[in-house]
Amino acid sequence: MGKTLFEKIWDKHVVRYIENETAVLYIDRHYIHEVTSPQAFNAIEKNGLKIFRPEKTTATADHNVPTVNQHLPISEKLSRIQVEQLEINCKKHNIQLFNLQNEHQGIVHVIGPELGLTLPGSTIVCGDSHTSTHGALGAIAFGIGTSEIEQVFASQCIIQNKPKTLKINVTGKLQKGVTAKDVILYIISKISTSGATGYFIEYCGETISNFSMEERMTICNMSIEMGARGGLISPDSKTIEYLKNKKFAPTGYDFELAKENWSNLFSDADAKFDRELFFSASEISPMVSYGTNPGMAISVSENIPLSNSLSGSEKISFANSLNYMNFYEGEKLVGKKIDYVFIGSCTNSRIEDLRSAAEIIKGKAKSANVIAWVVPGSKKVEQQAIAEGIDKIFTAAGFEFRQPGCSACLGMNEDKIPEGKYCVSTSNRNFEGRQGKGARTILASPIMAAIAAIKGEITDVRNYLN
Q1: I need a surface site. Which of 51, 135, 218, 265 has the fewest CB within 10 A?
Q2: Does the pLDDT at position 241 exceed 80?
Q3: Is the pLDDT of residue 410 over 80?
Q4: Mind giving me the DSSP string for 22-72?
Q5: 3-state DSSP call for residue 175?
Q6: What is the DSSP string of 254-310?
Q7: CA 33 to CA 66: how far, in whole Å?
Q8: To the nearest 10°, the Cα dihedral for 21, 24, 29, 33?
Q9: Which segments within 83-122 are labelled E, that is strand?
Q10: In which band, very low, low, confident or very high, does the pLDDT at 309 lie, cut at 50, 70 and 90?
Q11: Residues contacting residue 290 through CB under 8 Å, at least 6 positions apart
């Protein structure tokens, strides 16, 4: 019997099995940042160990960094200490670091692919749940905890239970105004935030293959939001073209050899998945979230669901979520006034995301009642946006074009949404307090966020597309 893509990569990286499906798995690339690495560094040093293969680890500062005046010392004490400690640890252990002064600094899940550090067929881990992003290039990539970071530091391996496999097929043509962000929000809304627990997803179908590499990253990024261990997409000619001439990707003859190997990274025709799901692209509309998890999302033209079919505990959770958001079951979200717009995060801060938002915004002005932030995912994206004049489109419309970082995706830095305020966000999570204490997050695509900023309210972007 044939193998799935996941099985091919997994089997190649198993050093040995401890028992049943528990494996010692070799890791090709380890990404770290300032938040989850300090404890692991301390543990390594306390035990008198050295980092086994420091050249396989790549570091960047992203979660706690400010997105304005990055040339100045960080004002928040905890953030400053964590960023400084990352620099100390990387220097001590000879780890490559892209700090705020480096031209390649940015969000870890943005710079990995754009620098060619993320490669097809590899195993990738990071102390961050959205490591699944890297699966867009045909890699097994997943987030790990602090104790697991220690394992990788010490041995370049990790003890891991083998997940089950889930194939998600998306076929057909998308409607105008529907993006990769809408597709993944739609899937999560259909199977719930726990619907893929215990699985590693492979995304297939013509809709997926028609996506650009950056759109595929958006899809894989949010795999974790349906409970999956990760998600990946088989590499193809787009993947190879994307990696060509990337700074750390193979070059010359080595690139040709790599291409040959990458061409074998696909699921065999007779491969057996543990589960398979099918979705039709034509049924997907621009999506918005209405609750406090990514599964609570609807088409922008729909009403918030009723709680009639829910069980007792589900009804209580549903009611609590709507109470936090100050929404009501059965009501429409179109026309709801908003206060903030955030375009950024490891989900939607790449150049294509900024371009698509700029197309909506060009020649218009944001609503006077909205504060709008655009935060590129890396210094490379920032410079590309400036070179294309995209930054000027945003600033002319009254948006703040900021410097790279995780920013308002999470309340770990200075970019927080005030309590009770509504933010249409291109990030990946809308948990209570995610963007700041009491902040109310509405997840959407970059073009939905852009039109919301212009109108000052939740708006169906399809009504404004030529």
Answers
A1: 265
A2: yes
A3: yes
A4: EEEEE-SEEEE-TTTSHHHHHHHHHTT---S-GGGEEEE--SS--SS-TTS
A5: coil
A6: HHHHHHHHHTT-S--TT---SEEEEEEGGG---EEE-SSSTTSEEETTSBPPPSTT-
A7: 15
A8: 90
A9: 96-98
A10: confident
A11: 296, 297, 298, 304, 322, 325, 327, 333, 442
Give, to the nearest 10 degrees, the angle between helix 38-46 and helix 77-93.
Answer: 50
| CA pair distance 126, 40, nearest whole angstrom | 12
Contact 446, 354 (CB under 8 A): yes
Give the tokens for residue 299. Answer: 């088409």
Question: For residues 220 and 162, what is the distance between their CA atoms, to the nearest angstrom?
Answer: 19
Domain definitions of the chain by residue range: 5-275, 289-464
Per-residue confidence (pLDDT) for residue 19, from 0 to 100: 84
Q: Which two tokens stand for residue 92?
A: 């001590």
Q: At what angle do helices 213-221 and 351-361 cross, to 10 degrees?
A: 100
In the three-class reduction of DSSP (H, G, I as helix; E, B as strand; rest coil), residue 374 is classed as: strand
Alpha helices (H) along 282-418:
312-325, 351-361, 379-387, 390-396
The pLDDT-based confidence of 466 (bands split at 50, 70, 90) is: low
Q: Which two tokens stand for residue 309?
A: 């079919």
Report the residue count for the chain. 466
Residues 6+ apart with CB under 8 A from 422: 336, 337, 338, 339, 340, 440, 442
CATH code: domain 289-464 is 3.30.499.10
Q: Say if strands 14-19 and 22-26 run parallel, antiparallel, or are unpaired.
A: antiparallel
Tokens found for residue 31: 């990404």
Tokens of 425: 């966000």
pLDDT at 184: 98
Closest C-alpha to 453, from 384, 381, 401: 401
Q: Do domains 5-275 and 289-464 have the same CATH topology?
A: yes
- Give the HSE-up count for residue 461: Cα atoms under 13 Å, Cβ half-sphere: 27
φ, ψ at 204 (rounded to 5°): -135, 175
The Cα 168–Cα 363 span in angstroms is 39
CA atoms within 13 A on the CB side of 211: 31
Q: Is 441 helix (H, G, I), strand (E, B) or coil?
A: strand
The CATH topology of domain 5-275 is Aconitase; domain 3 (3.30.499)
